[in-house]
Write a structure and sequence with these properties.
Strand order of the largest sheet: 3-2-1-4-5-10-9-6-7-8
Oligomer: single chain
Shape: elongated
Strand content: 15-25%
Number of helices: 10
Largest sheet: 10 strands, mixed
Distance between the termini: 30 Å
Number of domains: 2
Radius of gyration: 20 Å
CATH superfamily of the largest domain: HUPs
Helix content: 40-55%
Order of helices and strands: EHEHEHEHHEEHEHEHEHHE
CATH class of the largest domain: Alpha Beta
CATH topology of the largest domain: Rossmann fold
Number of strands: 10
Length: 288
């Protein structure tokens, strides 16, 4: 059974992610879905799900109101569960109260899902640099693969998938997940190595690295490409545009703290700026 976690905030983007997962039951029927809705701690004078302070509730009336609010969300999720009921998959729901990123991270650790699917519209400018989106934080730290959906997406439409890497530091686990995706979507796979001025390899060197990776893990029916660009992020996005890819797949080092601020994350940048779905996986050797 494949267990898929879907963070759900009742938005259009979250609905696109949920629709994508339920449509997966057509080619693959052995699915279990968990919908999680996180209500962030309310301010003294307001209750919301998009953010706010951590001040404790000040009076009994606010506490009653908040408990009722939580119950309303549970009822709404149960209605969605009933509406989506299908013999093709099983589904459960949960509501958590806290900081969205932390609560989702705790559920990942508790349930150990095979995949997390979430909708995202991306961020830009100062917000992207200073705050970062919940999606980016999850991509950086999640111990399971994360599929970020950018709009209405039919799994059957994912016919061209780009897997971008330097193909130097891959393990059996990562290769196995790529093979599983290849079988699940029955798609053309393009392995692309981005050549940049700061990390240059000759075509002969890059081709040899790619072929060694393919042979080591016995991949079949793979297209390969060495693509030159000014940066890895722009190269991945440009190549995906050039071939009309339907999905981008890549790994991330999951850096946090000052190291993340100094070096950034190619995977997070691609997730944030891509107009197509992006599958990411934090590599086992990654260190925070």
């Amino acid at each position: 059974m494949i267990h898929i976690l879907i963070p759900y905030d009742f938005s259009k983007m979250a609905t696109h992610a949920l629709d994508f997962v339920t449509q997966l039951s057509s080619p693959y029927t052995n699915l279990h879905l968990t919908l999680i809705h996180v209500i962030e701690y309310p301010l003294n004078t307001s209750v919301g799900t998009l953010g706010g302070g951590m001040d404790p509730l000040s009076d009994y009336q606010n506490q009653v109101y908040f408990r009722d609010f939580v119950e309303q969300k549970k009822v709404k999720l149960e209605r969605i569960k009933d509406k989506l009921s299908s013999p093709s998959y099983s589904i459960d729901t949960r509501v958590a109260v806290g900081v969205i990123f932390r609560e989702i991270s705790q559920v990942i650790e508790e349930l150990k899902p095979d995949l997390l699917v979430m909708g995202s519209s991306g961020t830009s400018g100062w917000e992207e640099f200073w705050i970062g989106s919940t999606t980016e934080k999850i991509v950086r730290t999640a111990t399971c693969p994360v599929l970020t959906i950018k709009g209405e997406t039919d799994p059957q439409s994912l016919k061209k998938i780009v897997f971008a890497s330097n193909f130097k530091e891959m393990d059996v686990g990562v290769a196995a997940r790529i093979k599983t995706m290849q079988l699940l979507f029955n798609s053309e796979f393009y392995f692309v190595s981005i050549n940049t001025p700061g990390d240059f390899m000759t075509n002969r060197e890059a081709d040899a690295t790619l072929e060694k990776f393919i042979a080591k893990f016995k991949f079949e029916n793979i297209h390969t490409q060495i693509y030159n660009s000014v940066s890895e992020e722009s190269g991945i996005l440009e190549f995906a545009d050039d071939i009309g890819a339907d999905l981008i797949a890549m790994t991330t080092h999951g850096r946090t703290g000052i190291l993340h601020l100094l070096t950034g994350s190619i995977a997070e940048d691609v997730v944030n700026h891509s107009k197509r779905p992006v599958w990411t996986l934090k590599t086992p050797s990654s260190k925070a």
